[in-house]
Amino acid sequence: MAEIGPARFPASNSHGTSLDRQTAPIGVLMLDTHFKRLPGDIGNGRSWKTPVLFKTVKGANPDRVVFGGAQDLLVPFLQAAQELIDEGAKAITTSCGFLALYQREMAAALSVPVFASSLLQAPVIERILPAGKKVGILTFSARSLTKRHLLAVGADPSTAIFGVAPDSAFAQYFGDHSNDDADVELLKRDVLDAVRIMLKEDPSIGAILCECTNLPPFSAAIARESGLPVFDIMGFVEWVARSLCPLVTDEVTDFS
Description:
Rossmann fold; 2 domains; 4-stranded parallel beta sheet; 9 helices; alpha/beta; single chain
Protein backbone atom coordinates (compact mmCIF):
# COMPACT_ATOMS: atom_id res chain seq x y z
CA MET A 1 0.00 0.00 0.00
CA ALA A 2 1.33 3.40 -0.93
CA GLU A 3 1.65 6.19 1.60
CA ILE A 4 -0.98 8.93 1.50
CA GLY A 5 -1.01 12.37 3.10
CA PRO A 6 -3.84 14.54 4.46
CA ALA A 7 -6.93 14.96 2.30
CA ARG A 8 -7.87 18.58 2.93
CA PHE A 9 -6.26 21.92 3.68
CA PRO A 10 -7.72 25.43 4.03
CA ALA A 11 -6.76 28.61 2.29
CA SER A 12 -7.85 32.23 2.47
CA ASN A 13 -8.16 34.92 -0.15
CA SER A 14 -7.06 38.50 0.29
CA HIS A 15 -10.46 39.47 1.71
CA GLY A 16 -10.48 36.79 4.38
CA THR A 17 -13.12 34.55 2.81
CA SER A 18 -12.52 30.95 3.71
CA LEU A 19 -11.80 28.84 0.65
CA ASP A 20 -11.45 25.08 0.76
CA ARG A 21 -10.21 22.47 -1.66
CA GLN A 22 -10.91 18.75 -1.58
CA THR A 23 -7.63 17.54 -3.02
CA ALA A 24 -7.03 14.53 -5.21
CA PRO A 25 -3.97 12.36 -4.57
CA ILE A 26 -0.93 12.79 -6.79
CA GLY A 27 0.96 9.58 -7.49
CA VAL A 28 4.74 9.93 -7.21
CA LEU A 29 6.92 7.30 -8.87
CA MET A 30 10.10 7.16 -6.80
CA LEU A 31 13.55 6.10 -7.92
CA ASP A 32 15.05 3.20 -6.00
CA THR A 33 17.34 5.14 -3.64
CA HIS A 34 18.61 4.95 -0.07
CA PHE A 35 19.59 8.52 0.81
CA LYS A 36 17.59 10.57 3.30
CA ARG A 37 15.38 13.26 1.78
CA LEU A 38 15.21 16.81 3.10
CA PRO A 39 11.96 18.66 3.82
CA GLY A 40 11.02 20.23 0.51
CA ASP A 41 12.22 17.20 -1.46
CA ILE A 42 9.56 15.42 -3.49
CA GLY A 43 10.14 12.20 -1.54
CA ASN A 44 9.72 13.68 1.94
CA GLY A 45 6.14 13.40 3.19
CA ARG A 46 6.53 16.63 5.17
CA SER A 47 7.01 18.57 1.92
CA TRP A 48 3.41 18.31 0.87
CA LYS A 49 0.22 20.32 1.23
CA THR A 50 -1.59 18.14 -1.28
CA PRO A 51 -2.05 14.39 -0.65
CA VAL A 52 0.45 12.12 -2.37
CA LEU A 53 0.87 8.42 -2.97
CA PHE A 54 4.44 7.11 -3.24
CA LYS A 55 5.61 3.99 -5.03
CA THR A 56 9.22 2.95 -5.56
CA VAL A 57 10.17 1.49 -8.95
CA LYS A 58 12.55 -1.29 -8.01
CA GLY A 59 15.85 -1.24 -9.85
CA ALA A 60 15.36 2.30 -11.14
CA ASN A 61 18.39 3.78 -9.40
CA PRO A 62 20.00 7.13 -10.32
CA ASP A 63 22.77 5.49 -12.32
CA ARG A 64 20.30 3.70 -14.60
CA VAL A 65 17.94 6.65 -14.99
CA VAL A 66 20.40 9.55 -15.22
CA PHE A 67 23.49 8.01 -16.78
CA GLY A 68 21.90 5.00 -18.46
CA GLY A 69 19.09 6.81 -20.24
CA ALA A 70 16.44 4.89 -18.25
CA GLN A 71 16.93 2.03 -20.68
CA ASP A 72 14.46 -0.88 -20.27
CA LEU A 73 12.59 0.91 -17.47
CA LEU A 74 9.46 2.08 -19.27
CA VAL A 75 7.44 -1.04 -18.46
CA PRO A 76 8.30 -1.03 -14.72
CA PHE A 77 7.35 2.65 -14.53
CA LEU A 78 4.06 2.02 -16.33
CA GLN A 79 3.26 -0.90 -14.05
CA ALA A 80 3.99 1.11 -10.92
CA ALA A 81 1.98 4.06 -12.25
CA GLN A 82 -1.02 1.83 -12.88
CA GLU A 83 -0.79 0.53 -9.33
CA LEU A 84 -0.89 4.11 -8.06
CA ILE A 85 -3.91 4.85 -10.25
CA ASP A 86 -5.64 1.74 -8.88
CA GLU A 87 -4.99 3.09 -5.37
CA GLY A 88 -6.59 6.42 -6.20
CA ALA A 89 -3.97 8.65 -7.83
CA LYS A 90 -5.52 11.23 -10.16
CA ALA A 91 -2.23 12.29 -11.77
CA ILE A 92 1.27 10.84 -11.99
CA THR A 93 4.67 12.44 -11.56
CA THR A 94 8.15 11.11 -10.82
CA SER A 95 11.10 11.80 -8.56
CA CYS A 96 13.55 12.42 -11.42
CA GLY A 97 13.47 15.03 -14.15
CA PHE A 98 15.46 12.75 -16.46
CA LEU A 99 12.30 10.69 -16.90
CA ALA A 100 11.30 13.35 -19.40
CA LEU A 101 12.38 10.66 -21.85
CA TYR A 102 9.20 8.70 -21.07
CA GLN A 103 6.75 11.63 -20.99
CA ARG A 104 4.99 10.86 -24.26
CA GLU A 105 4.87 7.10 -23.74
CA MET A 106 3.53 7.34 -20.20
CA ALA A 107 0.93 9.97 -21.06
CA ALA A 108 -0.28 7.85 -23.98
CA ALA A 109 -0.49 4.64 -21.94
CA LEU A 110 -2.12 5.88 -18.71
CA SER A 111 -5.65 7.07 -17.97
CA VAL A 112 -4.72 10.12 -15.85
CA PRO A 113 -2.55 13.19 -16.51
CA VAL A 114 1.19 12.50 -16.43
CA PHE A 115 3.92 15.05 -15.79
CA ALA A 116 7.05 12.96 -15.67
CA SER A 117 9.50 15.84 -15.37
CA SER A 118 9.82 19.40 -14.13
CA LEU A 119 11.28 20.14 -17.56
CA LEU A 120 7.75 20.27 -18.98
CA GLN A 121 7.59 23.79 -17.58
CA ALA A 122 10.38 25.10 -19.84
CA PRO A 123 8.24 26.17 -22.83
CA VAL A 124 5.82 28.08 -20.58
CA ILE A 125 8.61 29.84 -18.69
CA GLU A 126 10.21 30.93 -21.97
CA ARG A 127 6.98 32.60 -23.01
CA ILE A 128 6.45 34.61 -19.84
CA LEU A 129 9.92 36.16 -19.66
CA PRO A 130 10.81 39.68 -20.84
CA ALA A 131 12.37 40.19 -24.24
CA GLY A 132 16.00 39.14 -24.31
CA LYS A 133 15.63 36.82 -21.32
CA LYS A 134 15.51 33.03 -21.32
CA VAL A 135 15.16 30.10 -18.98
CA GLY A 136 18.22 28.28 -17.68
CA ILE A 137 17.99 24.70 -16.48
CA LEU A 138 19.78 23.68 -13.29
CA THR A 139 20.29 19.93 -13.30
CA PHE A 140 21.82 17.08 -11.35
CA SER A 141 24.03 16.23 -14.32
CA ALA A 142 24.65 18.67 -17.17
CA ARG A 143 26.59 16.11 -19.17
CA SER A 144 23.70 13.64 -19.07
CA LEU A 145 20.83 16.02 -19.83
CA THR A 146 20.57 16.06 -23.61
CA LYS A 147 18.55 17.52 -26.46
CA ARG A 148 16.64 14.25 -26.47
CA HIS A 149 15.32 14.97 -22.96
CA LEU A 150 14.31 18.50 -23.95
CA LEU A 151 12.60 17.48 -27.16
CA ALA A 152 10.64 14.80 -25.31
CA VAL A 153 8.86 17.52 -23.31
CA GLY A 154 8.53 20.07 -26.10
CA ALA A 155 11.34 22.30 -24.85
CA ASP A 156 13.77 24.20 -27.05
CA PRO A 157 16.75 21.88 -27.54
CA SER A 158 19.09 24.88 -27.34
CA THR A 159 17.94 25.75 -23.81
CA ALA A 160 20.89 26.61 -21.55
CA ILE A 161 21.82 23.75 -19.19
CA PHE A 162 24.02 24.00 -16.12
CA GLY A 163 24.62 21.38 -13.47
CA VAL A 164 26.12 20.85 -10.06
CA ALA A 165 29.75 19.72 -10.20
CA PRO A 166 30.01 15.97 -10.88
CA ASP A 167 32.44 15.54 -7.97
CA SER A 168 30.39 17.65 -5.56
CA ALA A 169 28.87 16.42 -2.32
CA PHE A 170 25.44 17.06 -3.86
CA ALA A 171 26.15 14.78 -6.82
CA GLN A 172 27.62 12.07 -4.64
CA TYR A 173 24.88 12.13 -2.03
CA PHE A 174 21.86 12.31 -4.33
CA GLY A 175 23.50 9.95 -6.77
CA ASP A 176 23.27 7.43 -3.93
CA HIS A 177 27.06 7.03 -3.78
CA SER A 178 27.58 8.22 -0.23
CA ASN A 179 27.05 6.25 2.95
CA ASP A 180 27.33 9.33 5.14
CA ASP A 181 24.59 11.66 6.32
CA ALA A 182 24.46 14.85 4.30
CA ASP A 183 25.95 18.15 5.42
CA VAL A 184 23.07 20.39 4.40
CA GLU A 185 25.18 23.54 4.27
CA LEU A 186 27.67 21.79 2.00
CA LEU A 187 24.86 20.62 -0.29
CA LYS A 188 23.52 24.17 -0.48
CA ARG A 189 26.97 25.53 -1.25
CA ASP A 190 27.30 23.10 -4.16
CA VAL A 191 23.96 24.24 -5.54
CA LEU A 192 24.73 27.95 -5.20
CA ASP A 193 28.16 27.47 -6.77
CA ALA A 194 26.37 26.07 -9.84
CA VAL A 195 23.94 29.01 -9.85
CA ARG A 196 26.80 31.52 -9.77
CA ILE A 197 28.49 29.83 -12.70
CA MET A 198 25.20 29.79 -14.61
CA LEU A 199 24.62 33.52 -14.17
CA LYS A 200 28.23 34.44 -14.89
CA GLU A 201 28.36 32.43 -18.10
CA ASP A 202 24.93 33.49 -19.36
CA PRO A 203 23.63 36.84 -18.07
CA SER A 204 20.60 36.54 -20.36
CA ILE A 205 19.05 33.93 -18.08
CA GLY A 206 15.87 35.39 -16.63
CA ALA A 207 14.51 32.40 -14.71
CA ILE A 208 15.87 29.14 -13.32
CA LEU A 209 14.16 25.80 -13.82
CA CYS A 210 15.26 23.02 -11.46
CA GLU A 211 15.32 19.67 -13.23
CA CYS A 212 16.32 17.72 -10.15
CA THR A 213 13.64 16.90 -7.58
CA ASN A 214 16.27 17.10 -4.83
CA LEU A 215 16.75 20.80 -5.54
CA PRO A 216 13.48 22.26 -4.14
CA PRO A 217 14.79 22.35 -0.53
CA PHE A 218 17.23 24.94 -1.88
CA SER A 219 14.86 26.85 -4.18
CA ALA A 220 14.53 29.77 -1.77
CA ALA A 221 18.31 30.02 -1.48
CA ILE A 222 18.61 29.90 -5.28
CA ALA A 223 16.09 32.73 -5.58
CA ARG A 224 17.95 34.84 -3.02
CA GLU A 225 21.28 34.23 -4.71
CA SER A 226 20.07 34.87 -8.25
CA GLY A 227 17.29 37.40 -7.76
CA LEU A 228 15.34 35.42 -10.37
CA PRO A 229 12.12 33.39 -10.44
CA VAL A 230 12.82 29.75 -9.59
CA PHE A 231 10.62 26.92 -10.84
CA ASP A 232 10.75 23.37 -9.52
CA ILE A 233 8.77 20.14 -9.37
CA MET A 234 6.98 21.05 -6.12
CA GLY A 235 5.38 24.16 -7.58
CA PHE A 236 4.49 22.16 -10.69
CA VAL A 237 2.72 19.50 -8.61
CA GLU A 238 0.72 22.11 -6.71
CA TRP A 239 -0.34 23.66 -10.03
CA VAL A 240 -1.57 20.30 -11.32
CA ALA A 241 -3.27 19.52 -8.00
CA ARG A 242 -5.14 22.83 -8.18
CA SER A 243 -6.41 21.89 -11.65
CA LEU A 244 -7.72 18.55 -10.41
CA CYS A 245 -9.60 20.08 -7.49
CA PRO A 246 -10.30 23.80 -7.88
CA LEU A 247 -11.06 25.87 -4.83
CA VAL A 248 -14.55 25.31 -3.47
CA THR A 249 -16.45 28.58 -3.11
CA ASP A 250 -20.02 27.31 -2.80
CA GLU A 251 -20.64 29.64 0.13
CA VAL A 252 -19.99 32.73 -2.02
CA THR A 253 -23.34 34.20 -3.13
CA ASP A 254 -22.50 37.86 -3.85
CA PHE A 255 -19.58 40.27 -4.38
CA SER A 256 -19.31 41.45 -0.77
